[in-house]
């Protein structure tokens, strides 16, 4: 499990990322937002980013949702 800190425009949170390579899925959690999501590892790139934006948009404004989704997507690519 990787733990990353996202700092942006006055909002700071920890993002927990767990990748299960054997079963090919990833779980992302942001406890400060009481939010988590699980998805298959074949979802990546722009598709993943849009999926994350739609899920996060229910909890935060669109600009923050897009920023978090972009960062999470980048962190997953680096893993």
From TrEMBL:
It comes from the Bacteria. InterPro entries: Uncharacterised_YueH. This is YueH-like protein. The lineage of its organism: Bacteria, Bacillati, Bacillota, Bacilli, Bacillales.
